[in-house]
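Re: beginner question about structure tokens

> Can someone show what the tokenized structure looks like for a real chain? I only ever see the sequence side.

Sure, here's an example I had lying around. Input first:
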Amino acid sequence: MNILEIDSLRAGHGLLVAVQDLSLTVAEGETVALVGANGAGKSTLLRTIAGAHRSTAGSVRLDGEDITALASHQRVQRGLALVPEGRRLFGDLTVWENLVVAGRRARTGPWTVDRVMEAFPMLTALRDVRASNLSGGQQQATAIGRALMTNPRLLFVDEVSLGLAPVAVDAVYESMAALIAGGSTVVLVEQDLSRALRVADRVICMLNGRIVLDAGIAQVSRAEVTEAYFGVPAPRRLPDGAAPVSTKSAVRR
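And the corresponding structure tokens:
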């Protein structure tokens, strides 16, 4: 069953079209890695689906309901949550306060402050620490926890590991893995292809505002994803003395 259905969505920034007549679906319980180079349109796509950026054409359906005209807070109430790039926490509030604020108008569901602390054990000792005093990894965990406090049906996480130290990325992904194993529906934007491909069921690659690859992880190779990511065939080594031949990119359009 599809929880999200996007049809011919279009969005931009002034005269720049960042998302070009894009269509996709996300099934309930699925984990989708949304990848692509800087400027491919990934963040604009997530913000548009979440209602934080205005679309100029197309439709967004959540659980079969057309939410295209709804404001972002109304989409949250219907079960869509976005962890934005840059986290955007309330810096003067503690970890606990950031979580509680998000939960005040939450949907009915299993996520509470205590359950978020269980999912992200690093936050337990930081409960009373101001968000502005947290490390990057701690802030990312808090931002994801804050989104979970709304009890979403569908969670978007934009740039999971951007700007984080490797040890912090490991900790965040360990908790993300627990969420995914629990059946959460997640769409994550990630620059680290290796990590993205390890946790996802499916990979979608964007280039110039369009989807150039959409495939299950088991049906696609790392070389195909790399080709789609950069928009050019990956270099291939030839045996000694062999002449180059014309090859078609394996990118699925």
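Each token stands for a local structural state, so reading them left to right follows the chain. The first strand starts at residue 2 and ends at 13.
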